[in-house]
Amino acid sequence: MPTLRTPHAEEHMDSGLKVSGITVGYGDSVVIDRLDLDIANGQVLIVTGPNGVGKSTLLRALAGLQYMDCTEYLIDEKPCSPHGAKHRAITHSISEEWPWLPGLTVGDHLALYGGIGQGDPAASRAFEYLGITDLLDRLPFSLSTGQERRAALASIAVRPWKVLFLDEPERGLDLEHQMLLGEMLKELLPGRCMAIATHRPDLFAELPAVELKLGA
């Protein structure tokens, strides 16, 4: 497959995320075959396509949650194993299942992520965007599906990361919060890069993005 490179990536001092020769499969079935990605800092890769085409598989592989073959994996032009401690320290991933810990409130979970912390203005704005300010003292099991999804997404604002992987982040959100999520990501993007698998690319139209259509 040809290299997918975001527009104007050459204008950035570093390349964000660069992965070459991505091959992912299940048994004898190859889902992603020799794909090259080069996402500049300040840019977003939007992965689209029908169900079952490999969007979640690609995001999981890039996030180090699923085995893949690749010839090169670089973050800010430095080699980084997707299964190593360094990768876990500078990336963040949100998929359908979120690992809530028993007995801890939403605020407790967000505090565990450290980074900029709940009192930071950017975190406070994110909590307002997602409507979770009044949920911080709640236990996750007491939340509705939409509230739980918004609480998980709030971790984006408190955890330090250089590369963010989001698998259908709009799932479980009403239209208002889907739109607000796009605004929050735009505010958090500078100096970092993201890969988002979605059925609603229009929600991220205000982000500087390039689209990868799987199964096209």
Automatic annotation (TrEMBL):
InterPro entries: AAA+_ATPase, ABC_transporter-like_ATP-bd, P-loop_NTPase. The keyword Protein biosynthesis does not apply. One of its GO terms (molecular function) is ATP binding. It comes from the Bacteria. Keywords: ATP-binding, Nucleotide-binding. The keyword Transmembrane helix does not apply. Transmembrane segments: none annotated. SMART domains: AAA. Signal peptide: none annotated. Residues 17-216 form the ABC transporter domain. This is ATP-binding cassette domain-containing protein.
